[in-house]
Amino acid sequence: MNLSDTQDSCCSGGSCSSKAAPPKEQPPIPAKRMPVDQPELPGFRTGNREMQTRFHFHMDLCIGCHACEVACAEQNGLPAHTQWRRVGEVQSGTYPDAQNYFLSSACNHCLDAPCVKGCPVDAYQINEQGIVVHLDDVCIGCGYCTWNCPYSVPTMQEDRRIVTKCDMCHNRLADGQDPACVQACPAGAIEIETVPLAQIYAEHMENGIGPDMPSPNISIPSTKITLPKGMDIEAFTKVDRPFVKPEHPHTPLIVMTVLTQLGFGGFCTVFIIDLIRTFFFQSAEAGTMLGWLAPTLMGIIVLSLGASTLHLGRPVYAGRALKNWKTSWLSREVLALSAFAGAAMVYSIFLFVTEAFQWLEPAQLGGSTVRLLLGFGTVVCGMAGIYCSSMLYRVPARPAWNSIKTTIDFFDVSAILGPAAFILASTLALLILGESVPFLISCIKGAALFTALAYLFKHTKNAYIIRKWSESEIFELKASAELRMNHFKRLRLIRNSIGLAGLALLTFFLPGLSMNMIEAYLALAVITLGLFTAVSFINRYIFFVSVVPRNIPGNYMVAATDSTH
Amino acid sequence: MIKTLKHLLGFDIKEEEYAYGIDPEHGYLSASRIPDQWVKSVCGYCSVGCGMLLGVKDGKIVSVRGDKDHPVNEGDLCPKGLSEHHPLTSPDRATHPLMKQSDGSFKQVSWDKAYGHMVDTVTRVQEKHGKESFGVLSTGQLLTEEFYALGKLVQLGFGTNNYDGNTTLCMSSAVVGYKQSFGSDGPPGSYKGLATADVIFLTGANIADNHPILWHHIRKNKNFKLIVCDPRKTKTAMLADLYLPLKPRRDLDLINGLIHLIIKNGRADEDYIRKHTTGYEALCQHAESFDLATTVERTGISEERILETYEAISTGKNVFFGWTMGINHSTQGSDTSSMINTLALITGNIGRTGAAPMSITGQCNAMGSREFSFSSSLPGYRKFEKQEDRAELSKLWKVEESLIPSERGGNYPQIIDAILEGKIKALWVIATNPLVSFPDQDRLKKALAKLDLLVVQDGFHPTPTTELADLVFPAAIWGEKDGMYTNSERRASRANAVVPPPGEARSDFQIFLDLAERLKKKDLLFPGWTRSEDAFEEIKTISKGRLCDYSGMTIDKMLDQGGLQWPCNATNPDGCDSLYTDGVYKFDDGKAKLFFTSPQALPEDTDANYRLNLNTGRTVEQWHTGTKTRTVDLLNKLAPEAWVEINPATATYYGITPQDRVSLISRRGRVDNILVRITETIHPDSVFMPFHFAEQCINKLTVPAFDPKSGEPNYKQCAVKLELFKG
User: Fold this and answer.
1) Does the ipTM exceed 0.90?
2) What CA–CA distance (Å, rounded) separates B278 from B594?
3) What gap in Å lies between CA A194 and CA A351, rounded to an integer?
4) pLDDT at residue number A289
5) How many angstroms away from the CA of A235 is the closest CA of chain B?
6) Model pTM score
7) Which end of chain A has fewer surrounding CB within 10 Å, N or C?
8) What is the dihedral of CA B216, B217, B222, B225, to 10 degrees?
9) B101 burial class (0-12, 13-18, 19+ CB within 10 angstroms)?
10) Which of B13, B28, B677 sits opposite A172 (nearest CB)?
C-alpha cells in the first residue's frame, strides 16, 4: 500500500490546501471573507473565471469513520436533521472478496449548478473561486433547489424554514484555513484544490465522478473523486438502494396545481362556448351561464395561488419569487400564472357585468371582439402558466418528473376537469332557467364525451409508462414505479375505482339530459366533477410522493431506519 | 405567540442562533462554538488517547477540537471525540444521590444519607458474611488517580479483594498474554511504529471503526503492506492489501501455522532467539504438527493467502503485530496473545519502533487501571504473591503489611458467580453498565436480584444498571474532573476539569475520599489528600523503578509534550517509545518465554438447531453501552439502533429481505425486532451484531464462557439461530 501516490497527484492542477500539504500560498484568485449579514457581494456570479476551487475526495483512503460529518455539523452549528456533509457507502463482490467503499460528499459546487439556475430569488451566488454560496436571508424556503440538485445536497432546514447547504467553508479558505471536513479527516481523504475549469470538463468527459452516482452531465460537478486502483465502477451499487421512501406530498402544491389546471380547463371551455355562441348560436342563456362560471373559476384560481404560498418557508417574501425569470421555471410559473389570473379576472369581470347582471352592454366595453380577445388572452396566459408549471417539475434530478409526461399530465387534468366543471355549470343554469336550452344540452354532450376520452387517454398512457419504468435501467424510475405499484397499490386501486365511477356517471350525459329530471342531473354533475377532482388530487399526491430523487450513495443505517420508522 | 407567527411567516430565520464569528485561534466558526478560552485536555472515550482543546464558555464546554500539538492525533478526532461536549449537558445525567424506595421508585437523598446507607449496609453485611461478601466492579473509564484511590479504599479500607474492573471484559487477556511472554504487563510498541513498519499485521482489530485516529499514523507510512485477519470483512479489512478471512476463533491455528512455516523454512531470527528467549526447542517440536495443509483446513484461509502472509512477516524489516478484542474476547485469549508475542519474538520484531507486538486497548484508561487500580495486581505492576512487593508497598504506604492481600480476589465473572452462590451480598458498580455489557444477561439479572445492596455510581441515570440500584451515586464525567488517562502506547496524558458537574454530582475521586472519611480511614489511606494531584504524587513515588515508572512525569510536562510514555524517569525524562529495546525481559533470567499452546474446541459450536456463529463488536458512532454517545443527536442518527449483518445466502435461506426485522435466539435468550443488513462482508455461517444497544441487547445471547486465565468472556463466538420477527 502506498498512500503517498494519490496525495501527491492531487496538486497537479494548481494550488492545493490539505493537511498533508498545508497551503503554502493563498488560492490564486483573491477572495474576501464574506460578511455574515451582507448578501450583496462584489464579484459573485462570476461567469468568466478560469479557475475553480473544489473538493477532491480520495475514495481509496477513506476509512468510513464519519468524522467529517460531525466536524461539519460542529463547524456550522447544525442540528442533526440538517447534514451538509454525508458519508455514503457502495458495495460489490461476494465474501470474502466483497469490497465496500465510502463516499464522503457535501456540495459539489457544480459548474452548471441547477440550484443556481432554478432558484427563483437568486439566493445562490457563485463566488470568484467557483464556490456556490447560498444566501440565507434571500432564500424564501421554496425548496426548489432541493428538487433541482442531482445530489440532493441543499437541505430544507426545518427549524429555520429555509434551505441551507455547504459553502466549502469559503470564509475559512479566505483566511488560509482548511474547511472543517478537510481538517477533521484522519485519513487525509478530503482535500481542497484549485484547478482550471477546462480540466474539470476534461475529467468529466471520461466517466462519472463516482460509483452509482448521477451523471456529471446534469450539472458538471466540480468535485473530483480519486477511485481505488482498479475499481470497476460499474460493478458497485449504493447500499441504500433497498430503501426508497415516499417523498413529501407538498399539499399546498397539490391544491395549487390541480386547481389552476381545473381553472385553465374551465376557461378553455368558457372561451370555446363564448366563441361558438358569438359566431354560431346566439344564446342569452349560455351567456348568463358563462357570466357566472367565469368569475367562479377565477376565484378558484386566485385562491389556489394564494394557498400555494403556504408551501413557502417564508410566505411573507413570496413576491421575491418573480425575480429570476431569466433562468428559473419557478419564477416563470409565478409570472405566467399571475398573468393568467390577471387576464382571467378582466375577462370574468367583462362576462359578469355584461352577461350575469347585464349592468352594461358589451358594446360599452368595446364589444364582443374585445371580450373574445380577453378570452383568448386568458387561454394563452393559462396555457403558458400550466406549461411553466409543468416545466418546473421537469428536472434531471428527478427522473420520474423529467419528461413530457409531466406536461401532458398537467394539461390532461385541464382537459378532464374543465369540461366537467362546464357540465356542472350548464346543468345548474338549466335548472335555474327551468327550460330546455338545446345549445347548452349539445355542449354538455360534447363536454361529457371530451372528459371521458381525456380520462381514458391519461390513464392508459400512464399505465403504459409506469410499466416501462418498472423495466427501466434507471434506478430512480424503476424505484418510482415500484413505489407506485407496491407502496401506493391501495391508493391507486381507490383512485381507479373513483375514476370508473366518474366514467359511468358521464355516460348519463352522453344521450343528452332531460329537463324532467334536471335536479337529478345536477346531482350527477356535482358528483362527477367531485369524483374527477378527487382522482386528480390523488394522482397529484402520487406524483409528489412517488418521485425518487437522484442522490449520492447513502448511509445504510440512516436509510434503513428512516424508511422503516 | 408573536414569535411563532413571525417564524411561520418567515420574518425570523434564527440568524442569531446560526451566526458565525471569528475565533482568535481557530478562525471562522459557528458563533455557538466560539468559547472564551481553550483548555488542553485528552479524550475520555477510547484508548487511542487523543489530545484535545476544550472550548469553555459560561461554565459549559461549547466545542471540542483536536490538539494539533498532541503527538497521538496532531489535531484529528473521531466523530465521538468531536462531539464529546454534548453528553455533559444531556438530560440523562445523574444529578442527585438517589435511594430506592420500597415501592421501587427513587427518592432524592443527601450525600450524607447516601454514604451513610452504603457504609452502614456494607459494614453490616461484612460483619455477618465476612469481608469478602462485599464486591466492587469498576471500569476503564476513571482517571488513574481515581483508580489508585479506589484500589486503596477497597482493598485496604473495605478490606475486600473481590474487586475487579470491566477491563476484564476487554483487555485482561492481553495482560496475561504479556505476563506469560515477558514476565510483566506492558504493551511494548507505540503508534509511531504504524508510520514506520513495513508490514502491519492486524488480527481481530477493526481499527477503522474502533480506533480510527490510528489511521493518522498509518497514512504517514510511505510504503507498507497491511494484512488484516478477521472473520468479518470489516472496514479495516476493506483497506487491507491482504485480507485473511478466518473461520470464527481460529486465530491460534493461523499463528501456529505461521510459526510452523517460519521455523520449517529457516526464517526464524536464530540470533535473537538464542540471546533473548527461552523455550525455542519445545516450540519447534510443538509447531511441527501445524503444517500448511492443516492450517488451511482449520482456518479456512487459502494456501495462497497464508503463504503471502508468512512471506511478508518473515521478510519484513519491521513488523507491527496489532490485535484487539477479536483475540482477547475468547476462552483462549490470553494464550493467543502470548502466541502473537511468540511470533514477534521468533522473527525478532520487538524492541524497535515499528517492530512490536501491540495490543490496542479499548477504554481511555484501561491502562491506568492495569497499572494502579490494585485489582488484578498490586499497584505498579507488583505481584500479590510476591512478599517483597507487598513489603515494599507497606513501607511506602506506611501501613501494616498484613493489610495487603497476598492473592487476587475474584475477577469480574467470578464475582458474579459468587453473588449467585450467595457469597457476595453487597456490590458497588462504578462507571460501568453490566446490564448491557455482561454475557448471559439472564444469569446476571438473577445474580443481581440476590444482593442485599447494589450501589451504582455513574454519570448517567437512568441506565439499565442504575435502574436496578438501591443507591445511585451521581458522578462527574470527563471534562468535569482532572487526572491522567494512559493510552494503549503507555502515554499518560493530563485530562483537565473545565466545567462543574451537574447538580450535586461529585467526582469519583471525591466520592472515594468521602467514603474513606466515613470509614474513618482517610488519614490511613489518603493522608492530607484533597486533590487528584495528591494521588499523582504518590503514584510517582510508588512507581519509581518499576516498568510503569511515572516518577519523571509532571502535569506541566504532560500538557506541554502531549503526554509522556512510561517508563519516564531520571534516565528517560521524556519517556520511552518502545519497551525491551535492550532485549532484557521481566523474568528472573531476563529472557522472554516462547509461549505456545494448541487450539481448543469452541465453547459452543454451531449445530443443526443453532446453525449460525454470532460475532459481536462495535461501530464507530457509538461507545460501549451508549450511555454517553446515545445522547448525541448526530451520532444517534447515524447509528440509532442495533442491526444484524447476514450474508445474502443466509437471507435467502431464511427468506429475509432488507425490509424485514428478525429475532436472534441462543440457548440463553432471544433478541427481537432487529434490523437486518444483508451484506457480503460476512460469511454465510456467521452473523454479526453490535453490542452498544440496550434495546436489542446482544448479551442476552452470548455464552458465559470465560478465559480461565484472564476471566475474559468469549464474546466473539456463540451459536444462534435466526427467525423472521413478526411484531
Assistant:
1) yes
2) 6
3) 63
4) 86
5) 14
6) 0.92
7) C
8) -110
9) exposed
10) B28
pLDDT of residue A277: 85
**Which grid coordinates are listed for B406?**
497476598
Nearest alpha-carbon partner for B196 in B226, B227, B222, B225: B222
Q: Cis peptide leading into A96, omega within 30 of 0?
A: yes
- Cβ contact B13–A188 (<8 Å): no
Q: Let me know how many helices (H) and strands (E) chain A has, helices first.
A: 17, 11
- For the stretch A217-260, pLDDT in tens is 899 999 999 999 999 999 999 999 999 999 999 999 999 999 99
Is there a contact between B36 and B42 (Cβ–Cβ < 8 Å)?
no
Q: How many residues does chain A have?
A: 565
**Quick check: A270 and A424 in contact, CB under 8 A?**
no
In terms of C-beta density within 10 A (0-12 exposed, 13-18 middle, 19 or more buried), how is residue B278 classed? middle
Nearest CA in chain A to B684: A95
pLDDT reading at A432 higher than 50: yes
Interface touch A74/B82, C-beta < 8 Å: yes
* Integer Cα distance of A220 and A396 in angstroms: 13
Query: Do residues A402 and A367 make contact, with C-beta atoms less than 8 angstroms apart?
Result: no
Name the residue type at position B614.
L
B622 contact A CB<8A: no
Out of A4, A67, A100, name the one closest to residue B681 (CB).
A100
List chain B residues with CB under 8 Å of A162.
10, 13
Residues from chain B that touch A317, judged by Cβ atoms under 8 A, are 10
How many angstroms separate the Cα of B51 from the Cα of each of B36, B196, B620? Answer: 19, 22, 18
Confidence (pLDDT) at B480 = 98
DSSP of B371-410 = HHSSSSSBTTTB-TT-HHHHHHHHHHHTS-GGGS-SS---
| Lookup: cell for B372 | 494502579
User: Strand pairing partners for A516?
Assistant: none
Share of chain B above pLDDT 90, in %: 98
Neighboring chain B residues of A561 at a CB cutoff of 8 Å: 640-641, 675
Closest Cα of chain B to A268: distance in Å? 35
- Can you tell me the distance from the alpha carbon of B475 to that of B481, in angstroms, rounded to the nearest whole number? 10
**A19, A184, A316 member nearest B82 (Cβ):** A184
